[in-house]
Amino acid sequence: MKLQSQLNAAFTALLIVIMTAAGYVIYSLIMDLLIQDEQRQLEETGELLVSVLNEQYGTESDLRQFNEFLKEQNLQLFMYDRNQDAVLFSTMSLPVVNEFFQQNDFSANETLWEYGNERFVTSRILFYDISGLELILLTPMDDLEMVQQDFFNRLFLVFLIGVVAAVLLSYFMTNKLVTPLSQLKSQLKKIEKRKFNEMDRVKATDEIKEVEQGVFDMAQELQRYMNSQQTFFQNASHELKTPLMTIQGYAEGIKDGIFDEKEREKGLEVMVTEVNRLKGIINEMILLAKLDSEPSDSEPVPIDAKVLIDKVIDRALPIITEKGINFEQSVENNIMIVADEEKMLRAVLNIVFNGIRHANSKVRVQVFKKKQTIEMLVEDDGEGVPAEEAAHIFHRFVKGKNGETGLGLAIARAIIEQSNGTISVDRSELGGAKFKILFETGKEKS
């Protein structure tokens, strides 16, 4: 059974139960109200009669003389003497009076009396001047039941119209709710089959819109991930294949004796160089895999930013001197970064080495606190990062000009994000690239 049918059935069943219960309560309540209203009318009529009789006829003998007067009023009533427990006279025939007297307790203040299969509503009015004398007026329940039934028929018609309107509204609302879900199901099937380019946006509102946006974002991220994985394997195979082919070429040449002594020595040196390069690539790939699969394998501690940059300069000093780079640093005091010290040192080194390789003459490092954020900027005056490459410069095996393995920036990003930081690249005022690293103060690794 489809979700829309289930929702409609559940809503309709709930509506019928509520309306049935409400109808039963109203049906019972309307009879009580009708009885109370009828008693009120009987009481008003009886008080009016008693008032007239009290004013004009003050004794019991006088009252007996006006039996005919009461019969002319076209009312069903008894003149009852509570002291004698007897009916003095009535507008009804004697057999009827006797039957009433046998089936009902005149001395009890009961609201409803019975006569055969019929029921009557009663109302009692006391005479002021004659002790124990009461005027009892009656009206048959048949009239009230007819009013009750007529009211119920009207109520049932209103309920029926309400149910039809509610079911139509339920169908409209559930259709509005379920249709986007059905469309989302279709889009998920496309994701399952990796048909990302065929995905369409689903029109929805409120929470379903949030789910739709989440599905769309997930699909885009999954597509980017799959594309990056494909690019990674292509680049990785290329990076590994190149040194292996070089090693294979020299090894076969040496084995077949086609090189002389000098060329053989040169080949061995190239083979050692390529092996070391291959080893470096593999080590960095292993480090990246560990950063992705073992994010908890770190020991975050407070690191003084000034001490961290000093260590970076110490390790980068030989290449700075060799290239004649003007290295500037500006680090505010008492800035603490919570991270794994060894890994963070490697991340910053990778970014600084990248700046040195691409710089013409100048590299600048700044660390400062801005509101609740620690900012670290690494800038150079080189050619910068082209806008089309900025989106994937941190992906694996993506190398710029003069790049080495294409893994340095990917490792740096993995370490920084593992430390709850972010890294981005932009254009520097110096003319080259500007790498910006941000850390929220007081935010430790989760």
From TrEMBL:
Histidine kinase domain location: 235-443
Organism lineage: Bacteria, Bacillati, Bacillota, Bacilli, Bacillales
Protein's recorded name: histidine kinase
InterPro entries recorded: HAMP_dom, HATPase_C_sf, HATPase_dom, His_kinase_dom, HisK_dim/P_dom, HisK_dim/P_sf, HssS/ArlS-like, Sig_transdc_His_kin-like_C
PROSITE patterns according to UniProt: HAMP, HIS_KIN
UniProt key word Transmembrane helix: yes
Pfam family, one: HATPase_c
Primary location class: membrane
Keywords, sorted A to Z: ATP-binding, Cell membrane, Kinase, Membrane, Nucleotide-binding, Phosphoprotein, Transferase, Transmembrane, Transmembrane helix, Two-component regulatory system
Transmembrane segments: 6-30, 151-173
Record organism: Oceanobacillus longus
Chemical reaction(s) catalysed: ATP + protein L-histidine = ADP + protein N-phospho-L-histidine
Listed EC numbers: 2.7.13.3
Locations listed in the record: Cell membrane
